[in-house]
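quick one
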Amino acid sequence: MLNLGIIGCGNIVGMHVRHLDRTPIHVTCVMDIDPARARAMGERLGCAWTTDRAALLARDDVQAVLVATPNIDHAESAQAALAAGKHVLCEKPIVTTLEEGIEVAQAAREAPGIFQSAFMRRCHPAYRELRRLVQEEAGEIQHVTIRNSGGVPAAKWLDIQNDANYVRLMVSNLVTSGCHSLDIMRWVLGEPRGVFGKTRSWGDLPYEGYTTATFDYDGFVACWDYGLHRVLGVGDWRTGWEDTWEVTAERARITLSMPDWDRYEENRPILRIHWGDGRVEEPMLPACDYYEVQLNAFAANVAAGTANPDAMDGFRAQALVEAIRTSTATGQVEAVGAYYEKAMK
Ligand SMILES: NC(=O)c1ccc[n+]([C@@H]2O[C@H](COP(=O)([O-])OP(=O)(O)OC[C@H]3O[C@@H](n4cnc5c(N)ncnc54)[C@H](O)[C@@H]3O)[C@@H](O)[C@H]2O)c1
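structure w/ nicotinamide-adenine-dinucleotide:
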């Protein structure tokens, strides 16, 4: 069993703890600045609760910490947990600026505990199978299209954009969730050399809502489309959600369509492989709770002493966000290596 403390008791923690009984994780203490939320989660999980982060971190029965606060707090709480000698599973985005990313990567290198970025897509069997096919069977890649978007009613979109406090805490849609899709792109395809991107919002509101970027790889380009739109009822699941891949390579065209991240039990991933010799395969993939497989992977990583994805993966996802933003501002292609090198200094 791995004894876990939780910092921040909001919506996402409900997803993390849904299938705790199918993991080797035991929650011993939870913390939130809002006492009602801390208490409710403590009572739900039958564990101690507090509004004092230092008190949670001082407990001997907390070996590891899940950081699930708003985005702008992640770097601070994660570093406090690392300094207290805890293993850390940090919600994405692990940071909201490159400077924070450099600090967290440094702290993670020096700490005794492991630091895992909560890019849970890497733990899902469907993405693992996509990666295996692309890296081991498909042959030389010729072209890739990745689309990840969610449908949001127009009124809710306006609520988000006009809520200055929400924007302050979460920064933007590209920062808060684009990092998921950028991380999985790096994990499946490797490192891009450059990016040409354009972020858009609706009207003159500040929240980056939709982004299109072209990533330049050795020998191919990956077209990446990410964001929120107002058209509900589209996509394979008719919910407005799309998380799709199309990889055209020397020996196969592979397509993957993933179900809504928070409604995994209703739909299964659809993976199709059109082989160059005419065969079409559609392997049956399991419906799978992202958060359950992530907690199981975290416990295994703590036991092994290595994190995947680690703090540098979190930093690199933010580096790609920054490169897209700069490209949007300058209208130029940005070299990705220059952003990555900042973490080495
Ligand atoms: N992995 C995913 O797919 C996924 C999905 C949704 C959200 N998230 C991430 O999870 C995080 C939380 O999102 P949410 O939807 O649960 O938000 P939320 O607003 O529902 O919950 C945040 C909680 O943190 C508490 N809090 C705020 N500042 C704090 C601090 N300094 N110390 C302790 N507690 C503090 C708030 O009181 C609140 O209870 C965000 O970073 C978000 O990006 C990840």
